[in-house]
Amino acid sequence: MYEDCVESTKDYYLFCDNEGSWGIVLEALAAIGIVVTILLLLAFLFLMRKVQDCSQWNVLPTQFVFLLGVLGLFGLAFAFIIQFNEQTAPVRYFLFGVLFALCFSCLLAHASNLVKLVRGGVSFSWTTILCIAVGVSLLQTIIAIEYVTLMMTRGMMFEHMTPYQLNVDFVVLLVYVLLLMALTFFISKATFCGPCENWKQHGRLIFVTVLISIIIWVVWISMLMRGNPQLQRQPQWDDAVICIGLVTNAWVFLLLYIIPELCILYRSCRQDCPAQINTCGAVPVYQRTFRSENQELSRARDSDGAEEDVALTSFGSPIQLQTVDTTQEYLIPRATLSPQQDAGV
């Protein structure tokens, strides 16, 4: 049966290899990831209707696009499980960088918005955040389109290149994605500085997610460029290394960013009177000054033992009477006054 499988479908050799258990494991993890991502997409659509805070709602469309990118990453894993051929090569070189660029650009847009919010500023509109995310990822799309088009117009050059040349081109094609990762990492660190503590938890999620992603990328790129040739496992381990990094990073996006964000969103929606997340921990200066002045006036009025009375004229306009010490004098009821005295008053 094993020989029949190899002879009949050479492109799907890794599916039939009894020693290549990594393909079965990654295939299962990718399939589970697709199901979980779809459920999270439905949960986001359900909770978007209940969010009342505009600053919190503005980032939800970008997070929805982020989930679509993660869904694409799990689907792309199957292109690496199947053996490298003329059908899977363009898909790998095009979608790998584009999907990761979309995910990291969404994190970058969210972190940029948080930099304003932690300092007490006003949030960007949802269209602005979404345009930043999509616009930043367009450059990687253009680079990938030009590379794949150039390789295919030259007579499918992928099949005539050595494994080392293929790996070098694959990594060089992802330089812009590495730049996005570094930029998102430093901007997420800037969210730690500011008086608004409630928004910092979102910045910490982005910071940890990008930090773990950088570690994953350093490991799989090192293995692809140095580890596999030194261990004499090139190209046998190349697809496995890239696919493991792909699936692992996609799960990191879900476990460290999307699911915690969804929990925060769910808790805020359950509150009957949701607090304004944009409020800072410290009371503004003008409010503190106003309160202190009111307290000083109240203490001064209480110490003098005087109170202020306001009477209304027959036309309804308020007249402020002279302050009378209640401990020494008594006010004469209006009903006991004569018409002449009443007119005098």
From TrEMBL:
**Residues passing through the membrane, by range:** 20-47, 59-82, 94-115, 127-150, 170-193, 205-225, 237-259
Q: What are the annotated GO cellular component locations?
A: extracellular exosome; plasma membrane; receptor complex
UniProt domain G-protein coupled receptors family 3 profile: residue ranges: 18-261
What Pfam families does this protein map onto?
A: 7tm_3 (PF00003)
Q: What is its main location?
A: membrane
Q: Which UniProt keywords apply?
A: Cell membrane, G-protein coupled receptor, Membrane, Receptor, Transducer, Transmembrane, Transmembrane helix
Q: Where would you find this protein in the cell?
A: Cell membrane
For this UniProt entry, the molecular function terms from Gene Ontology, in alphabetical order, are: G protein-coupled receptor activity; protein kinase activator activity
Domain of life (superkingdom): Eukaryota
Entry-linked InterPro entries: GPCR_3_C (IPR017978), RA-inducible_GPCR3 (IPR051753)
Protein topology in the membrane: Multi-pass membrane protein
Query: Its family?
Result: Belongs to the G-protein coupled receptor 3 family.
Q: What is this protein called?
A: G protein-coupled receptor class C group 5 member D
Organism annotation: Cavia porcellus
Q: What is the lineage of its organism?
A: Eukaryota, Metazoa, Chordata, Craniata, Vertebrata
Gene this protein is translated from: GPRC5D
